[in-house]
């Protein structure tokens, strides 16, 4: 029988237990084991059967048990302590208040299409969402005043299971918001707060706003499941990354434009300061920039700026992070669709649609005129942009060089901040406790990593075995469920009780089944893999997981290939494919692995974060030199799989890289793992493990990442934004200046360059003097920088590893002509070359390339 209506009865806690509600209402519990202990004490078996979900736990625990707890002094004491700890965490001064930048922004909005915070709030599909979750948590730990903005998807992402044949099956369970750790944003009178967006083809799209408390950080989540909406609007927030272009466009309009409106409502209701900086995590939220332009140009009661001035205000305060070097991963829409939705009948009336279309136009060499590119708009609406590892920064500068065609790749204004992971979420409690045993302070992670040297090898190895054992137990449970679901009878499944072995070298590999991640590289030579798995002396076992996008049959085939191998009775005790990779699976997986494998097609892994989580738990990385590993592999903290980068034939390349991977496992990894001393401890392995903790520990942290964002992007952005926002005169001036410089640029020329001081055979240390005669037309010398660009030269006279020396104005002549002089010391031997160029200069520019114009000698 189906219910005709459902609702959730909220539990009423006895007054003595009110603090349980407070603890459940703040997601800090999800990275605070001591708070989890309190929930576990409420009812250990319910705690486990609800999947460690405080809201569900409190919703299912019986009245009698609650009354009993209300009289249990020991429990009340622990509860009071946990509550006090949370209060302190939420209110005390933390890094941003104590040691952070003076005058930093009072609020920063962080927009993302997905957030992976805890398994019980499944609003993520993979790395992008997990990163966003870790960003919020680390911001909370540091006291950085971020407010998150996202959507609440009724089905989240899908749940993965397998058919008998090993084909991925998707299900979309309904999430009941009343059973989630979120609360509705309400007006002062208790009514539900809503925001709305005009749609070109129907009534307004209405959304309510949920708030999740992520420690000190509020996360606003928009949800269109409200009765004001017609059915097809209710479904706008149905699921993550489902549906056609139009569906996605509606989601992104809601996220960007609706997100700004939700922030305004939140500030109005709670008094939260208005964000001074807007950070968009990947292009999906880019429409937020259009809403800000609308506020500044046409909104009643707004400053009514012109478009260009508003654009400068928006750009100065916007940070854009690009996440994918895979061209197919870039978010693009048919241009006509965007035109239809963003006409005056749409959500930003009064913002000219031709200007909007120009922001997302691929109007560069190789671009497609029929699409609207969200990443391109992202760069144009943000004055500061970054990739997520050094290598990815480099690849992004190459990939988007077309937006600044006059500049070499190195000067494309895209920087990089390497991702990090939130240690309290991802590091096993036992690992923290090990450091505690030798006096490390768990609140001072720096002391924590150096403690690695003081912990006896035997202790480390015992704990690693314990973690492996926990993973094996968890994997067996999951295998049992999966095989039963696939139609196997319990009686056939006795072998699972001894599948995997807590004393065998365990290699983990879990990630989305995107093709560049090459889920099946390790299966390239099945016979060789089988030999590795079943080696009588040095066996290896593999734990694998990862979902394919529902529309990606290629990815599903890769999964099927693994499942079929894992079904093979010869090896099934040594290889497990676990369905439904999510945070709940990931948490015991990383600590339980000895080696974390990553073999993407270089350079398509923008950063990768799972290997960082493994490293923090004493796992060694075995990876292609891509993403973060390219940056931080040091020869001692794991292994680099040689990548056959130059080989065009992908089959050949896979063969070469797979062979190298097998060789490494067989000749380096397994021998080292099994090389144990008389106590049974692999001392050389432990050396690498300790070195991994010490060398990577401080770097891979999300707190390092959020500090970098704060210091390198958020604070400078807020400084610029304040200068422009002060009655907007600065912004109008900047917009006017840009117009003037662009208009006058055709008159800018480097006419003549002379040098002296370095005869025919200069030696290191010689000083070269340069005089440049330039014509600036109608522009003033102060509008430009005249630069001497010098460096090594290639055989084609291309400049490499250049440095820039600014030349100084010496004399001005008639008709806008000027002389600029300067000196440079030749500080290394070899081929040297130089040129002189003119670029726009304004202290409010972040990069000389920002306007995309340059003048070079003819
Ligand atoms: C960390 C994590 C990811 C991202 O891992 P990558 O190495 O970036 O692919 C994806 N899913 C889950 C559940 C994770 O914990």
Automatic annotation (TrEMBL):
Gene3D superfamilies: Glycogen Phosphorylase B. Residues 13-121 form the DUF3417 domain. Its cofactor is pyridoxal 5'-phosphate. Phosphorylase is an important allosteric enzyme in carbohydrate metabolism. Enzymes from different sources differ in their regulatory mechanisms and in their natural substrates. However, all known phosphorylases share catalytic and structural properties. This is glycogen phosphorylase. Its EC number is 2.4.1.1. Residues 1-18 form the signal peptide. It comes from Nocardioides oceani. Keywords: Allosteric enzyme, Carbohydrate metabolism, Glycosyltransferase, Pyridoxal phosphate, Signal, Transferase. The keyword Ribonucleoprotein does not apply. It catalyses: [(1->4)-alpha-D-glucosyl](n) + phosphate = [(1->4)-alpha-D-glucosyl](n-1) + alpha-D-glucose 1-phosphate.
């Amino acid at each position: 029988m189906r219910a005709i209506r459902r609702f959730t009865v909220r539990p009423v806690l006895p007054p003595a237990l009110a603090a349980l509600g407070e603890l459940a209402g703040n997601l800090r519990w999800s990275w605070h084991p001591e708070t989890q202990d309190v929930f576990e004490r409420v009812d250990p078996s319910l705690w486990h059967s609800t999947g460690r979900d405080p809201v569900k736990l409190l919703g299912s625990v019986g009245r009698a048990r609650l009354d009993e707890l209300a009289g249990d002094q020991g429990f009340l004491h622990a509860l009071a302590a946990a509550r006090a700890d949370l209060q302190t965490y939420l209110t005390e001064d933390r890094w941003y208040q104590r040691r952070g930048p003076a005058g930093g922004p009072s609020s920063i909005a962080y927009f993302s299409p997905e957030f992976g915070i805890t398994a019980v709030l499944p609003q993520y599909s993979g790395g992008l969402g997990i990163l966003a979750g870790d960003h919020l948590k680390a911001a909370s730990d540091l006291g950085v005043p971020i407010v998150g903005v996202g959507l609440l998807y009724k089905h989240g992402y899908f749940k993965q299971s397998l058919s008998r044949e090993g084909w991925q099956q998707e299900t979309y369970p309904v999430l009941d918001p009343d059973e989630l750790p979120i609360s509705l944003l309400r007006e002062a009178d208790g009514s539900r707060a809503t925001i709305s967006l005009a749609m070109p083809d129907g009534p307004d799209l209405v959304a309510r706003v949920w708030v999740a408390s992520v420690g000190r950080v509020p996360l606003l989540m928009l949800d269109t499941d409200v009765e004001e909406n017609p059915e097809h609007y209710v479904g706008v927030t149905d699921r993550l990354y489902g549906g056609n272009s139009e569906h996605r466009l509606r989601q992104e309009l809601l996220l960007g434009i609706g997100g700004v409106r939700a922030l305004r409502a939140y500030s109005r209701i709670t008094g939260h300061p208005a964000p001074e900086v807007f950070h968009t995590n990947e292009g999906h939220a880019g429409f937020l920039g259009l809403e800000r332009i609308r506020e500044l140009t046409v909104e009643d009661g707004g400053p009514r700026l012109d478009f260009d001035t508003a654009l400068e205000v928006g750009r100065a305060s916007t940070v854009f992070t690009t996440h994918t070097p895979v061209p197919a991963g870039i978010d693009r829409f048919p241009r006509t669709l965007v035109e239809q939705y963003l006409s005056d009948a749409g959500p930003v009336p009064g913002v000219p649609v031709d200007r909007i279309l120009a922001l997302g136009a691929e109007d560069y060499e190789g671009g497609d005129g029929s699409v609207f590119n969200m990443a391109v708009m992202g760069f144009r609406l943000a004055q500061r942009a970054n990739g997520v590892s050094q290598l990815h920064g480099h690849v992004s500068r190459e990939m988007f060089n077309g937006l600044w065609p006059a500049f070499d790749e190195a000067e494309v204004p895209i920087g990089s901040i390497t991702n990090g992971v939130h240690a309290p979420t991802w590091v096993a409690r036992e690992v923290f406790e090990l450091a505690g045993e030798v006096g490390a302070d768990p609140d001072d992670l720096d002391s924590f990593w150096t403690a690695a040297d003081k912990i006896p090898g035997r202790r480390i190895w015992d704990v690693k075995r314990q973690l492996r054992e926990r993973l094996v137990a968890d994997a067996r449970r999951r295998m049992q469920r999966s095989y039963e679901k696939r139609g196997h009878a319990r009686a056939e499944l006795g072998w699972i009780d001894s599948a995997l072995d807590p004393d065998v070298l365990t290699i983990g590999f879990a990630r989305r089944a995107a093709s560049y991640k090459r889920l099946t590289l390790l299966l390239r030579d099945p016979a060789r893999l089988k030999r590795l798995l079943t080696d009588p002396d040095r066996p290896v076992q593999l734990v694998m997981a990862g979902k394919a996008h529902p529309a990606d049959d290629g990815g599903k085939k890769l999964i099927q290939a693994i499942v079929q191998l894992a079904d093979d009775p010869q090896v099934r005790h040594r290889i497990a494919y676990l369905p439904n990779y999510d945070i709940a699976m990931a948490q015991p997986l990383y600590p339980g692995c000895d080696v974390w494998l990553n073999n993407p097609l270089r350079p398509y892994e923008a950063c990768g974060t799972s290997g960082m989580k493994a490293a923090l738990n004493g796992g060694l990385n075995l990876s292609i030199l891509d993403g973060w590993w390219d940056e931080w592999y040091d020869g001692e903290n794991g292994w680099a799989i040689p990548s056959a980068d130059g080989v065009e034939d992908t089959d050949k390349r896979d063969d070469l890289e797979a062979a190298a991977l097998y060789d490494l496992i067989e000749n380096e990894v397994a021998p080292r793992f099994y090389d144990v001393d008389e106590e049974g401890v692999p001392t050389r392995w432990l050396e690498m493990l300790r070195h991994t903790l010490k060398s990577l520990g401080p770097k891979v942290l999300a707190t390092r990442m959020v500090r970098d964002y704060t210091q390198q992007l958020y604070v400078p952005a807020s400084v610029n934004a304040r200068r422009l926002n002060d009655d907007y005169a600065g912004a109008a001036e900047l917009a006017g200046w840009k117009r003037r410089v662009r208009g006058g640029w055709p008159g800018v020329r480097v006419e003549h360059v002379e040098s002296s001081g370095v005869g025919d055979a200069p030696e290191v240390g010689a000083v070269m003097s340069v005089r440049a005669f330039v014509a600036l037309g109608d522009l003033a010398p102060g509008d430009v920088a005249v630069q001497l660009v010098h460096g090594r030269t290639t055989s084609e006279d291309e400049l490499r590893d250049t440095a820039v020396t600014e030349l100084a104005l010496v004399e001005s002549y008639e008709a806008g002509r000027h002389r600029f002089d300067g000196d440079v010391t030749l500080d290394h031997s070899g081929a040297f070359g130089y040129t002189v160029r003119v670029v726009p200069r304004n202290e409010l520019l972040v990069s000389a390339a920002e306007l995309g114009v340059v003048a070079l000698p003819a």
